[in-house]
Design brief:
alpha/beta, Rossmann fold, binds NADP nicotinamide-adenine-dinucleotide phosphate
Length: 306
């Protein structure tokens, strides 16, 4: 079996390549193409067609996205291209080469006012990122009607710079010791990128066997936490001072972040069978520990969505 993972240089894509490691897997990057990654501009239909024509995959996974708030605000054309145009072109390419497609989307398509959200709940994105993710879903469905759209909540996992995820950025703030206010209203469901990748792998298997699930699937960890609660968990686990941490409501007050966009996963669980949930309390220490030193690099090329 052959798989192509678009966006394999990113947080999720890197774990996806591992999860599909028993297949012949080709990963693409754009600005980061170290190792075996192939450089592909996903806003170029020709570049996508060339790659898919060469690799002839059974399954395509699209992890391309532009989730940096600085780009939504400052370079909307680029953010739209990375989120919407790339999604449409990859979906067209997958259909043309006869591969099944899993397209990664986000819980930010919901407004967070009435959780839990089912795959057929009415989306109502609050910010540009959520609107782009929703527009991308529509484009994918039109271009490749049998694609599976997998919506995920905020992810954590091994990172290359602290700001690559909310969790590692918060860990850095806890360790830095400077006064910091963290939102204590919006509830997130941090999900390990390896768990998301494993679910995607299982979903891909089901699709390749020719099964047709609903076009949208949800996956999420079960434990809900605010950023402030995550900070306290980190401080407690590593015996760090917590007096500089203040509970705030910045994300909620801004009005463009869902307060609670919990995704209901029962449909996908029924289709896949038992899936091992990775428990946040058990997983987070290994992920944050390397970032608890003030010397660790905070910013890399990419900045996490808020
Ligand atoms: N991270 C989260 O918390 C989260 C939560 C829910 C859903 N998602 C969704 O999951 C997907 C993956 O997210 P992520 O966190 O892994 O993102 P990420 O770390 O920012 O990685 C994004 C990937 O997209 C690639 N890319 C961006 N523009 C491209 C272009 N024009 N052509 C080709 N590749 C391009 C990047 O390549 P280079 O870096 O090499 O340029 C990178 O491989 C996205 O759809 C995102 O919206 C993420």
């Amino acid at each position: 079996m052959r798989a192509v993972i678009f966006g394999a240089s990113g947080l999720l894509g890197r774990r996806m390549v591992r999860a599909f490691g028993d297949m012949t897997v080709t990963g693409t990057g754009f600005s980061r193409t170290a190792g075996a990654l192939v450089a592909v501009d996903a806003t170029s239909a020709d570049a996508i067609a060339r790659l898919l024509g060469r690799e002839r995959p059974d399954i395509v996974v699209n992890c391309v996205g532009e989730r940096r708030p600085a780009v939504w605000a400052g370079e909307p054309d680029r953010a739209r291209a990375g989120n919407v145009d790339a999604a449409r072109l990859i979906a067209k390419g997958a259909r043309r080469c006869g591969a099944r497609l899993v397209h990664i989307s986000s819980d930010y398509v919901f407004d967070g006012m009435a959780p839990p959200y089912q795959p057929d709940s009415l989306p109502n994105p609050l910010n540009a990122y959520g609107r782009w993710k929703l527009t991308a879903e529509h484009a994918v469905r039109a271009a490749c009607p049998d694609a599976a759209i997998l919506r995920l909540p905020v992810l954590y996992g091994p990172v290359r710079f602290a700001a690559e995820t909310n969790l590692t950025e918060i860990a850095h703030q806890v360790a830095a010791g400077a006064p910091v206010q963290l939102d204590d209203v919006c509830v997130r469901y941090p999900t390990h990128a390896d768990e998301a990748a494993e679910v995607c792998r299982r979903l891909a298997e089901v699709l390749v066997k020719g099964k047709h699930l609903g076009s949208v699937a949800h996956w999420s960890a079960e434990q809900g936490l605010t950023k402030y609660q995550m900070a306290h968990l980190i401080a407690r686990r590593f015996d760090l001072p917590a007096g500089h941490l203040r509970a705030g409501e910045a994300d909620a007050a801004a009005g463009d972040r869902p307060v609670d966009a919990r995704l209901d996963c029962h449909d996908l669980l029924a289709a896949l069978g038992p899936v091992r949930h990775r428990l946040f309390d058990i997983e987070f220490p290994a992920v944050v520990e390397p970032w608890l030193t003030p010397a660790a690099p905070v910013r890399g090329r990419r900045k996490d969505r808020a």
